[in-house]
Write a structure and sequence with these properties.
The protein has 164 residues and is an alpha/beta fold. The chain has a domain of 28 residues. The chain is 29% helix and 29% strand. Helix 5 links the parallel strand 4 and strand 5. The relative contact order is 0.17. The N terminus is likely disordered.
Length: 164
């Protein structure tokens, strides 16, 4: 049985929202590369790994949460998951990899979202998408456009792509 960290401020994506997201993305992520920034419980990254993503990179700065994620990767035998104990913003600034799907769920009180939306276009493969979760509705800056969006309780969620 996998465990999920019990860290202050950790907000796992609600089941209903996660189900909607993976319906949007399709039932398989075969061959896709995924980045789970601010991984927290790792629910999105582990879900992507279970749907045959070629590679899932999870980034989590909280050391105790990271240890739990490491334990869960071992328990689940997730050879397609790699973990990085870093701040999400710092990670994308130094990472040269490109991704097909980026899960973006920064702490709601942070100012990361505008900065990340400015940086992330360079991190996406062609036709890549970014899933954004936030505590308030966001204004989507160019070159992004919302492919899908929803709200569940206090959580706003959107699937973004680059407007061409």
């Amino acid at each position: 049985m996998i465990s999920f960290p019990d860290a202050e401020g950790l907000r796992p994506t609600p089941d209903r929202v996660r189900e909607t997201l993976f319906n949007w993305l399709g039932q398989t992520l075969y061959g896709r590369t995924c980045l789970d920034l601010f991984a927290g419980s790792g629910a999105l990254g582990f879900e992507a790994a279970s749907r045959s993503a070629e590679r899932v990179v999870m980034v989590e700065m909280n050391r105790s949460v990271l240890r739990t994620l490491q334990d869960n990767v071992k328990k689940l035998g997730c050879a397609n998951v790699s973990l990085h104990g870093r701040d999400g913003l710092e990670f994308v600034l130094s990472d040269a990899q490109k991704y097909d799907v980026i899960f973006l769920d920064p702490p709601f009180q942070s100012d990361y979202l505008p900065k990340l939306l400015e940086i992330l276009p360079q991190c996406l493969n062609e036709n890549g998408v970014v899933y954004v979760e936030s505590g308030a509705a966001i204004n989507i800056p160019p070159p992004w456009h919302a492919v899908k969006s929803g709200k569940a309780g206090q959580v706003y969620f959107q699937l973004l792509s680059i407007h061409k």
